[in-house]
Every structure is written in structure tokens, then in C-alpha cells.
Amino acid sequence: MLSQPQIDSIVKAVDENFDKQLSFTGDLIRHPSLRTQEESAQDLMEDALSTRGFAIDRWELDPETISQHPGAGFINVPYQGMTNVVGTYQPAETTGRSLILNGHIDVVPVGPQEQWSRSPWEPHMEDGWLYGRGCGDMKAGLVAGLYAIDAIRDAGLELAAPLYFQSVVEEESTGNGTLSAIQRGYTAEAVLIPEPEEDMLVRANVGVIWAKIRVGGKPTHVRQMTTGFNAIDAAIDVVKQLRVLEAEWNAERGNHRYFEHLDHPINFNIGQITGGDWPSSVPAWCEFDLRAALYPGVTADEAWEQIQHHLKIAEAALSSEDAYVKAERTGFYAEGAVYEEGTDAERVLGEHHQTVFGSSLESFTTPGYIDSRLFVLYSGLPTLVYGPRTEEIHGYDERVSIESLRKVTKTMALFIAEWCGTTDVK
User: Fold this and answer.
1) Number of H helices and number of E strands within the chain?
2) What are the structural domain ranges in the chain?
3) Which residues contact 303 (CB under 8 A, 6 or more apart)?
4) What is the pLDDT of residue 426?
5) pLDDT digits (tens, 9 = 90+) for 124-146
6) Is the per-residue pLDDT at 252 higher than 90?
7) Segment 1-57, tens digit of pLDDT
8) CA dihedral 334, 203, 392, 300 (to 10 degrees)
9) Which contiguous run of DSSP H or E holds residue 29?
10) Is 214 helix (H, G, I), strand (E, B) or coil?
11) DSSP string for 208-255
């Protein structure tokens, strides 16, 4: 157990370093670490870990190795030059419990930049919020881990157990970055992932399947439009059939633990669409990208089979022998996960959340994806997903609450210090 003077010293150190923490988070936001473009941000993370004395392991993701794992997502981009960065702290003597601190460096596209109040890549602070693409999801949490460790050291303490600080890619599309770290052999007695979780702990999250659906039609000149078959119109009908499946799965929420109280836990999102070749030609094709959620306990294979079944229903209903519906998996092929209550890691985090926030640690179920499912399903590790309040992640003017971030950093620092144990710096 941490003594009260140790707690006070760690909390004080977070406050004293907090301006530097915000500044470094801003530096990281300035690196537009979109998919396949993460390397400059990873350079920054590697340097930050190296200067703190961590042993650095940086490697390029290997599609062949990853694809052999049952938890892998489907790869549709080249992985050349896409790297994970892991910093390892190893004490001279281990008396505490080891920890993986995991976070992702990749961010999603910004959309039309003119819809942002300011540049999404130029961070700014206003009315208690830090703005910028990726600030909430999840660069602020990733940096909080660094400064939580700094606070422990500035309090005159060193960790008494191994800590593996993982900055990974591919969280927003496949989960293959974290999976690659697992395949590389990294394990510990607990995992902490500071995703943007509203000062709460995630109890369960959905799995996700990505797929590209292609609908075929028959092209003609528009003057003979009725002799053709419009693939874009047909795609609308295919989406309607997928909505039938979405409604069926949502109606089953009472059968799935921790999802019973959610109004709409299963979301089918049509995230991209394109089609046709010419304004005056009846379109011969239309493609749209589907993101489908699934409950924990439902395998990706089972969910994919049902999706294909409904696509066949949609295809059979199309009124043309030239029409077809084809589906190809393109990214996530991930099962959901439940994070069981009552672990010692949760107890320790809850006690220090209470210390910092003055209230009990609450948990919630998210309809979103988190890499934590990989640690639970394939490594069996107690995994905590806990992070600051945010608004508009994946949207315009993404932002993270500065005061929430300060408090979460304090909670993380106290948790890490107690979980890993500490020794006085000599």
C-alpha cells in the first residue's frame, strides 16, 4: 500500500508536470498519424520512452504472421513502414506485479477540414478543453501514461516490477498492432488502456466486422433507363435488408450480459459509398463499406454467416438477372469482450479513483471497439480500460477535458505505483 506522503508526492508531481504534459500531447497531435502515416508520431513516442530510460523495441508489422492468428483483422493496406513501439522498464529486482500500459497512436480521418473551428492538426485549449484530431482518441491517454510514470519518479520512487509501455498502430481498423505485440511475447499480470472512457471503467464492448459490399447492375443510356438496372438504387435496398438484421440483433440484447439496458447496442454503419461511372449512364455498380457490431460470446464467423444470409435475401429480391451482391471482409473481424468484476487490478484502480475524484469508480458498456478484447480473449489477462472525458471523437472539433485528464493522470500514477510496487530512489 502507498503511504499518504507517497500519495501526496505523486499527486503533487502530476500537477507540477501538467503543463509539460499538455504541451507534449499537443506536439503529438501535430503529427497526423492517419493509417499508414503513423511513423513520425511513433518517432516522437520512441524518443520520449528512450529519454526516460526505457529499452526500446520497434518493429514492422508482419502481415503473414498476424494473419495466422484467429483474432486478426483482414489486411488491405501495405504494412511496410508501419511499426509498433514498446518501451520496457525492468527493475533490478522484481517485488511487485508487472503491467502493460497500452495505447494506440493511429487516428481517423478528419473529414472536411473547413467544418472544424480550427485546423485539426493544430492543438489549442479553450474553455477547459484541449482540441485536435486524436487528442481524445487516444493521444491524451497515451501521454498520460508517460507523465504518470514521471510523477512516480519525481516523487522519489522507482517501480518494483516490469512495465511495458506499448504505442501501437491499427487500432482504428483491425486491432493488428496490439495483436502483433501479443504475438511478440509481451505479457504481464495486468493491462491498463487509457482510452477515452468518461472517467469510468469499461465493463464490456462489442466486436466488429468490416466488409465491402458490391452491388451489380446493368448499364444503359438514361434515355433507355427502364431497360437497365440501377446498382445505386439496388444498394439502398441491400442496406434496408441489413437493417432488418441489425434490428433482430438489437432485439436480443436482453440475452447478453451488460447489454440489457442499452437502447441500441448493435450498430450497422454505412461508412463509405461509391458507385457508377457517368452521370448519364445507369450505374453498373455500387460499393459501400459496412461496420457491423456483434455481442461478446458471438463469434465473428457466426456473425459473418448471418450477414451473408441477409445479403443473399437482398440479392434474391433484386428484379434483374444482371444484379448481384458480393461481400468482402476488409478490416475488423473481431469478437467482443466482457471484463469481469472483482479483479484485484480493478480494486486497486477503484481505490485510487476514489482518492482522486472523491467518488466511486463507475463502469459502463460501450458499443465501440477496444483493443483490450485481444488481451482478454487470447492472453487471459485482467484488463482495465479507463480514461478521460471527451467530446466529438471521430467527429469535428474533437476535444478532451483538461481537468478530467489531470485527474485521470493522477489516478493512473497512483494505480501504477501500487500495482507495480515501488522502491525509494537511492
Assistant:
1) 10, 19
2) 4-205+337-424, 208-334
3) 207, 209, 292, 294
4) 64
5) 999 999 999 999 999 999 999 99
6) yes
7) 899 999 999 999 999 999 999 999 999 999 999 999 999 999 999 999 999 999 999
8) 10
9) helix 4-29
10) strand
11) EEEEEEEEE-B--BGGGGGGSB-HHHHHHHHHHHHHHHHHHHHHTGGG
Grid cell digits, residue 104: 494506440
Specify the pTM. Answer: 0.96
Written as one letter, the residue type at 274 is T
The C-alpha atoms of residue 377 and residue 72 are separated, in whole angstroms, by 12
Exposed/middle/buried for 399, CB within 10 Å: 0-12, 13-18, 19+? Answer: buried
Give SS3 for 323.
coil
The residue type at 393: I
| Coil, strand or helix at 391 | strand
Torsions phi, psi for 236 (to 5 deg): -60, -40
Backbone angles phi, psi at 338, to 5 degrees: -115, 135
How many Å apart are CA 414 and CA 132, to the nearest integer? 28
d(Cα 35, Cα 199) in Å, to the nearest integer? 27
| C-alpha of 71 from chain center | 15
- 55-114 pLDDT tens trace: 999 999 999 999 999 999 999 999 999 999 999 999 999 999 999 999 999 999 999 999
Task: Check: CB of residue 323 under 8 Å from CB of residue 217.
Answer: yes
Architecture of the domain made up of 208-334:
2-Layer Sandwich (3.30)
CATH code for the domain defined by 4-205+337-424: 3.40.630.10
Strand ranges (DSSP E) for 187-264? 191-193, 201-205, 207-216
Place of cell 450477414: 307
String of b and e for 369-398 (b: at least 16 CB within 10 Å)?
A: bbbbbbbbbbeebbbbbbbbbbeebeeebb
